[in-house]
């Protein structure tokens, strides 16, 4: 089989893994170790209450981790452990519909988690969304009151402009979230890209993506207007992180730490900082 045929088979395999069942084995399952987990039973739409005007960028609050398609929060265990090791309070959000249902319904689960965190005394929340979870985070901010309580948003390998692999799955094998993640879907088209923010007018967005991402097609679909978009290979030229490894790689972990630091990340780290980011954030 030629190179083209091998690439087609690889793409088909990526579809099967990412859009049909990667997270199914652990769908909706929380993790052990004392990290809070928010139940997935939430209204179809929601909004954070009480609404507040802006948050203090210098004071970090609770971190909400939002899983990708399939809803497997275990994909985010490495990030959870890293953030907790730095003293952050972390909540893993269980998304309804096993992470394959309507993305706005999933955003309502994030809204519930944020409401609970603020009610418990958190000054704000930071939201880290992996894959489709990054689109869910944007919905929460843009449509469900998140802009009033969110300090930072970090998306990791998220199909902000849809992914062509979702076009290869049809019928019942492509539930609501799958259809919504197709390029030019109503949701993708209608969801506003975040305005460039200084923190006083809303959350600061960072989008992390890899040129080696075989599920987000094209990989540049993760580039988000209004966000600091960082291609991993521009920080570490030897990086070859694929989609499923994104939330597990030390480079992504280090960049997440920087994006959620005391000050917003204004510029991407350069190649001279590659090993520092990988080892210390």
Secondary-structure map with pairings?
Layout: H1 3-21, E1 36-38, E2 62-66, H2 77-85, E3 90-93, H3 103-119, E4 125-130, H4 132-143, E5 150-156, H5 176-180, H6 186-190, E6 204-209, E7 228-231, H7 232-235, H8 250-259, H9 274-280
Parallel strand pairs: 1-3, 2-3, 2-4, 4-5, 5-6, 6-7
Helix pairs in contact: 3-4, 8-9
Task: Write a brief structural summary.
With 281 residues, the protein is α/β, with parallel strands linked by helices.
Your description of this structure?
By secondary structure, this protein is α/β, with parallel strands linked by helices. It has a single domain, classed as Rossmann fold, CATH 3.40.50.1820. Strands 1-3-2-4-5-6-7 form a 7-stranded parallel sheet, with helices on both faces. Strand 4, helix 4 and strand 5 form a beta-alpha-beta unit. Helix 3 packs across helix 4. The termini are far apart. The N terminus is likely disordered.
CATH fold node name: Rossmann fold
The portion of residues forming beta strands comes to 5-15%
Query: Which sheet architecture does the biggest sheet show?
Result: 7 strands, parallel
Strand order of the largest sheet: 1-3-2-4-5-6-7
Q: Which architecture would the CATH scheme give at its second level?
A: 3-Layer(aba) Sandwich
Q: Helix-strand pattern, N to C? A: HEEHEHEHEHHEEHHH
Per CATH, the superfamily is Alpha/Beta hydrolase fold, catalytic domain
How many separate domains make up the residues?
A: 1
């Amino acid at each position: 089989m030629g190179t083209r045929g091998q690439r087609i088979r690889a793409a088909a395999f990526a579809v099967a893994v990412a859009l049909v069942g990667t997270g199914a084995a652990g769908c909706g399952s929380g993790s052990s170790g004392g990290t809070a987990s928010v139940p997935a039973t939430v209204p179809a739409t929601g909004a954070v209450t009480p609404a507040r005007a802006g948050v203090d960028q210098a004071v970090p609050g609770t971190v909400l981790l939002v899983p990708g398609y399939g809803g497997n929060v275990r994909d985010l265990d490495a990030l959870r452990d890293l953030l907790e090791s730095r003293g952050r309070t972390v909540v893993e959000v269980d998304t309804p519909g096993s992470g394959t249902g309507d993305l706005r319904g999933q955003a309502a689960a994030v809204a519930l988690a944020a409401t609970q965190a603020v009610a418990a005394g958190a000054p704000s929340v930071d939201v880290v969304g992996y894959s489709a979870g990054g689109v869910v985070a944007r919905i929460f901010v843009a449509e469900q009151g998140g802009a009033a309580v969110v300090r930072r948003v970090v998306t990791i390998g998220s199909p902000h402009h849809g992914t062509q692999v979702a076009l290869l799955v049809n019928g019942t094998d492509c539930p609501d979230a799958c259809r919504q993640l197709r390029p030019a879907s109503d949701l993708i088209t209608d969801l506003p890209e975040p305005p460039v923010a200084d923190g006083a007018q809303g959350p600061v967005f960072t989008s992390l993506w890899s040129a080696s991402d075989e599920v987000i097609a094209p990989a540049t679909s993760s580039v988000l207007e209004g966000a600091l978009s960082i291609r991993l290979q521009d920080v570490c030229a030897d990086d070859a992180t694929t989609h499923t490894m994104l939330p597990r790689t030390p480079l992504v972990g280090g960049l997440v730490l920087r994006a959620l630091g005391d000050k917003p990340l204004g510029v991407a780290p350069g190649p001279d900082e590659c090993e520092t980011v990988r080892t210390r954030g």
